[in-house]
Structures are given as C-alpha cells and as structure tokens.
Design brief:
There is one protein chain. By secondary structure, the chain is of the alpha/beta class. The chain has twelve helices and eight strands. The protein has a four-stranded parallel β-sheet with strand order 2-1-3-4, sandwiched between helices. It has a four-stranded parallel β-sheet with strand order 6-5-7-8, sandwiched between helices. This is Coproporphyrin III ferrochelatase. Keywords: Cytoplasm, Heme biosynthesis, Iron, Lyase, Metal-binding, Porphyrin biosynthesis.
C-alpha cells in the first residue's frame, strides 16, 4: 500500500503566451470561440500587464512551498497541480496521481471562499476523476477564516494604509472585493457572499476599521445580471460623496493575475485618477508563507474530519 498522501492543488490557470489566449478563452467559454473583438480586448489586457500573467509561476511556487511545509514533520505528502482552464487540467492531475500509486488524497482550491459556481465546479471535476481512478479524494470546501490567512491579509492592509497621508486616512474608504458571479447564486442560497463578508468583518475588526464596504469586480460579459455593486461604480459614488482616498483589498484573489494586475492596477487606477481619488490596493499574498500555512491548516482539518482517530 502506497502511504503517500496526494494533495491536489487546484487553480484557475492562465495562458503561457499570447498565442495560447484564444484556446484558453475558448475553454472558458465551454468550447465556443470568442468573437474577435472580445479576443482582441483580452489580448490587449495581457499586453498591458507585460504580455503574460505571472499566475502559473506563482502557482508553481505555491505548490513547492506547500509540499515543503507539509513535509516538515511528516514526509509523506506529494503536491500535484490541477488547473481549471489550462494544462495540467484537474482531471489529468488526478489521473497522474493514480498512476503514481496515490490511493488517498486531499484537494484544495486556491480560492478561500466557497461557491457552487467556482470552488464547487473544481471539486466536482476532481471527485468525478478520482472516482474513475478508484482513488479516495476529500476536498477542502473553504478556508476563508483560517488565522494564518487573516494574519497575512492584516499585514498587507497595515502596509497599504501607510501609503496614505495622515489627512487622507481621516476620510479613507476601505473596499474589500472579490470576483463577481451571476446573481442567480443568491436564489441557490450560495455561501459565497456571506463568506466574503465574514472575512471582511474579521479584518475590519482586527484593524478597527469602521469605514469600509464590499464591492464586486471583474464581472463576466454575459446577458444575465451579475452581483454588484461593481468596484468602479462604488468608486464613482465615493467621489460624489467627497472621498479622496480609497484602499482596495481584493480578498477573493490570492495571487497576482489579470483581475488584479489589469482590473485594479490599470483600469481602477485610471478611473480613480479621473475621479480625483488616491487609490491603492493591498499587495497580493502570492506565495506568502502564512497563506501556505493557511492551506496546510485547512488540509489537516479535512484529514482530521475523515480520520478522527489519527490512525494511518
């Protein structure tokens, strides 16, 4: 019996070059090629951040540090990366685990907050592949309230607040944000919005921040309504109320990628300049050791749930 425990680290994925953008976008659109104007716009966004997103490299580093941290006390873990929209895909990663003789595994998504339309999709695909491979896989549902995760975000907030003058901090709005999803998740009782507010409230409480709110960003281009208010709309409303300083804390994203490097650093920054607002954002966690520690804590929590006796 192979006693190695596999860890399936799941991430969104990103193109590795501009030549891969069309294939990537087509995969996101479930096999439907994007209209040329939308494709050109997406390629333009990648060019604006330097040609390619650093997400794949960051994910690789997160995986290396996760495996290293897990094996500090017990060298029996092996981490595999599975991507939702780019190779190595989730199902392929599961098949590789099975081929390596892995019989038991834990899956975790690099998204702290659970939604049936995000984390739920990853885990469904992973569990189906594991069932086919006759491998036992248990998945972390969410890890948005892990102490180490909150610790890392708290430090990022404190560092970002120092970028504002004392006068600006007297009327500063902190805006927490995450990727928007279609409004229909509300009718399903999806926990995503409330989990995001739980993280936001915890951070505001830690830093004694009273003047904060939540906004959504990076909504998809579809006919159905998406969750709002949008961060740019909120920024406009703040300007009308006389605010001249805004700190963005994108708690739904744990790494630098297009929705951060373009949507916030370029698009939101330009919008802020037009509105006369000093705009800053908290630095991404990327491979911060405390975020890795949060993943480890969540993984061990699932292990305890499925094996409360601690027997191996």
């Amino acid at each position: 019996m192979n006693k190695t425990i596999g860890i399936l680290l799941m991430a969104y994925g990103t193109p590795r070059s501009l030549d891969e953008v069309e294939t990537y976008y087509t995969h996101i659109r479930r096999g439907n090629k994007p209209p040329q104007p939308l494709l050109d716009e997406l390629i333009g966004r990648y060019k604006a951040i330097g040609g390619v997103s650093p997400l794949n490299e960051i994910t690789d580093e997160q995986a290396r540090k996760l495996e290293q941290t897990l094996n500090v006390k017990d060298s029996r873990y092996k981490v595999y990366i599975g991507m939702k929209h780019a190779a190595p895909f989730i199902a392929d990663a599961v098949r590789r685990m099975a081929a390596d003789g892995i019989e038991k595994a834990v899956g975790i998504v690099l998204a702290p907050h659970y939604s049936t339309m995000s984390v739920g999709v990853y885990t469904k695909e992973a569990l189906e592949a594991a069932e086919e491979a006759l491998m036992k896989l248990h998945c972390v549902s969410s890890w948005h309230m892990e102490d180490a995760f909150l610790d890392a975000l708290e430090e990022r907030l404190r560092e970002a607040l120092e970028k504002f003058s004392e006068e600006e901090r007297r009327q500063l709005k902190v805006v927490f944000s995450a990727h928007s999803l279609p409004e229909r998740i509300l009718a399903l009782g999806d926990p995503y919005p409330e989990q995001l507010l739980e993280t936001s409230r915890a951070l505001a409480s830690r830093l004694l921040i009273d003047d904060w709110q939540f906004a959504w960003q990076s909504a998809g281009r579809t006919a159905e309504p998406w969750l709002g208010p949008d961060l740019l709309v909120v920024m406009g409303e703040l300007a009308e109320k006389g605010y001249r300083a805004m700190l963005s804390c994108p708690i739904g994203f744990v790494a630098d990628h297009l929705e951060v490097l373009y949507d916030l650093d370029i698009e939101a920054q330009q919008h802020a300049s037009q509105k006369g607002i000093h705009f800053e954002r908290t630095a991404s966690l990327n491979a911060d050791q405390r975020m890795i520690d949060a993943l480890v804590a969540a993984i061990h929590r699932v292990e305890r749930e499925i094996n409360p006796s601690g027997a191996r």
